[in-house]
Fold this sequence. Notes:
DNA-binding, binds zinc ion, mainly alpha, 141 residues
Amino acid sequence: MLTIGKLAEAAGVKVPTIRYYEQIGLLPPPERSAGNQRLYGNRAEERLAFIRHARDLGFPLEAIRDLLSLSDRPDQSCEAADAIARAQLSAVRARIGRLRALEAELERMIGQCAHGTIADCRVIEVLGDHAHCAHEHRKEP
Amino acid sequence: MLTIGKLAEAAGVKVPTIRYYEQIGLLPPPERSAGNQRLYGNRAEERLAFIRHARDLGFPLEAIRDLLSLSDRPDQSCEAADAIARAQLSAVRARIGRLRALEAELERMIGQCAHGTIADCRVIEVLGDHAHCAHEHRKEP
DNA sequence: CTAATGTCTCTAGCAACTATAGGTTCAAGG
DNA sequence: CCTTGAACCTATAGTTGCTAGAGACATTAG
Ligand SMILES: [Zn+2]
Ligand SMILES: [Zn+2]
Ligand SMILES: [Zn+2]
Ligand SMILES: [Zn+2]
């Protein structure tokens, strides 16, 4: 049985994060000690590791909630789980695409600046020029 | 002179966003009509376009605040402005690097799944395996 | 003149935590 | 056995960058 601090350390998350996950129902309320402190067993540790890894991969908590409830029904087809993962993959790819456009524009504007005064700064100029860019850059959520 | 709605339309932002920018001091309080409605001139339109473009490039509002106050002093060296832009570029690159690692892992786990039952699902398995990955994937802010 | 928008202020909500305050419990050293 | 300090408890508020709603006033088209 682990205290919340030990569990946090083991899983690589902060203590308040665990309490937060409990509050929103991602982790079940654990046992308590005589003095009302949380005590976690193996199940909780695995569940938290699952959550953490999914978070590391960028899954939103709602998707993780769905994945967890799927993983509680091992006999069903994994199609729904795979669909969640594919959705996450395409979200990641969309973000990469957008960021690469930003990278290109930032590179260009930094590269073109002659590093003189603000009045001649290419960075300030490009930012202020509201018609300069043919590309659409929006909208990173 | 533009009303807030027209300005919003012209700049491609929502009306409450403009009020929000005013509230946090990114846009100065504009003139008001007899009936207390906001009226904006060219200066405000340009400033908002600047903000929007910088936001589109992913600059945080604090950085934009600094860029705006720099752009009000055209005689100074643009070094500070360029440094902000370089910081943003490296933040973007860091995000891209991390996302590409996520992309690779998501691809691998989706590709390896035989699409049977949850019990055999590679997606669920990889997420639950807290020691599977040699790579570090953390921490996208 | 009236009806339909548009605008005003203020408050609350989103994700996913993080930080603080003020109090309780636990483990170890003396 | 007792004290001290760390770790724990709850509850609330703050973070970022907006967005949505309520209820009241202003403007404009027909
Ligand atoms: Zn410059
Ligand atoms: Zn651009
Ligand atoms: Zn599968
Ligand atoms: Zn991994």
